[in-house]
Design a protein that fits this description.
With about 325 residues, the protein is an alpha/beta fold. The protein has two domains: about 170 residues, Bordetella uptake gene, domain 1 (D-Maltodextrin-Binding Protein, domain 2); about 100 residues, Periplasmic binding protein-like II (D-Maltodextrin-Binding Protein, domain 2, 3-Layer(aba) Sandwich). The chain has eleven helices and ten strands. Helix 2 links the parallel strand 1 and strand 2. Helix 2 crosses helix 9 and helix 6 packs across helix 11.
Length: about 325
């Protein structure tokens, strides 16, 4: 009798285990059956938000359920990424992020997560950074900026979107590689930083191409360089930093989709396939290019490796330049 009870108990344990293992598969087959939240760790109206809303529309069409953008701004993107990392890995919380919250901020402060606490799905777009001056400055090339800065160390000022942001890190990288001293003037976002340059409050800035594009051709700006090895398709006449002898100056904003760690593979694959199809749609490519972005996709592992490399790059310049959030 005891033997039968043991056999029965063992059988029930096996059945329970089998049922538990089957849950993710069954859940994946049923997914999605409700709206999906796409977290954006920045305020509405910015470049990340703009790309997220384009992507959300396409993902919703492909997946058959609405994809709703949820702006969770604050702490340089940390609040939104933390909310995503701590959400249930059920496929109903995703996030579109730039490198800052993952690769940058954890090198500047104690973040409530690490690079390994999220699941990487795919890159969706890249936005080149550009070095820009006011057209009244008399500077027409990157060499002009370097010569003027060396002639007056610490006198020329550059604006950024805030301490520890991509424009800040990018210009500190430029300062290091060009051996110049520039004064950092932080603003609360990319738009105010560009406005400050337009108003002549600062002499230069490095910023994503997106907020610069509307002013190209107006005569207000002179774009001195694209910060990287490749020219931007939107500005084919503008040389790169690499072409102008600064091969160590590469900075761009890579946007990608992440999810809470532990997302079932079947759901992760569905999301990634839908995102890749959306990015590769001809009308989406054209829209991205008009907004200053370059459509791009990747495998999940390629995206993870990219963020790890970005983290090391940011850590190096943050340490060398003694950058803080103050």
């Amino acid at each position: 009798m005891k033997t039968n009870r043991r056999i029965w108990g063992a059988a029930m344990a096996l059945l329970t285990a089998a049922a538990t293992l089957a849950l993710p598969s069954a859940h994946a087959q049923d997914w999605p059956n409700q709206p999906i939240k796409l977290v954006v760790p920045y305020a509405a109206g910015g470049p990340t938000d703009a790309i997220a809303r384009l992507l959300a529309t396409k993902l919703g069409e492909s997946l058959g359920k609405p994809v709703v953008v949820d702006n969770r701004a604050g702490a340089g993107g940390i609040i939104g990424v933390e909310a995503t990392a701590k959400a249930q890995p059920d496929g109903y919380t995703l996030a579109l992020i730039a490198p800052g919250p993952l690769a940058g901020m954890p090198n500047l402060m104690k973040a409530p997560y690490t690079l390994d606490d999220v699941q990487y799905l795919t890159v969706v777009a890249r936005i080149p950074s550009v070095i820009v001056v006011n057209s009244k400055s008399g500077m027409h090339t990157l060499d002009d900026l370097i010569k003027k800065a060396k002639a007056a160390p610490g006198k020329l000022a550059y604006s950024s979107a805030g301490p520890g942001t991509t424009p800040h890190i990018g210009m500190e990288l430029f300062k290091d590689q060009a051996a110049v001293d520039l004064l950092h003037v932080p603003y609360k976002g990319a738009a105010p930083a560009v406005t400050a340059l337009l108003a002549g409050e600062v002499d230069a800035t490095m910023v994503d191409l997106l907020p610069v594009l509307p002013h190209v051709g107006s005569g207000a700006f002179t774009v001195l360089a694209v910060a990287g090895p490749e020219r931007a398709p939107q500005l084919p006449h503008v040389p790169t930093t690499h072409e102008q002898g600064l091969k160590g100056v590469s900075m761009e904003t890579t946007y990608g989709l992440i999810a809470p760690k532990g997302l079932p593979a079947a759901i992760a694959n569905k999301v990634r396939e839908a995102a890749v199809a959306a990015v590769n749609a001809p009308e989406m490519k054209q829209t991205f290019l008009k907004q200053g972005a370059i459509p791009a996709t990747s495998t999940s592992d390629e995206y993870r490796q990219l963020m790890a490399a970005e983290s090391q790059k940011w850590k190096g310049i943050i340490t060398k330049s003694k950058i803080t959030l103050e």
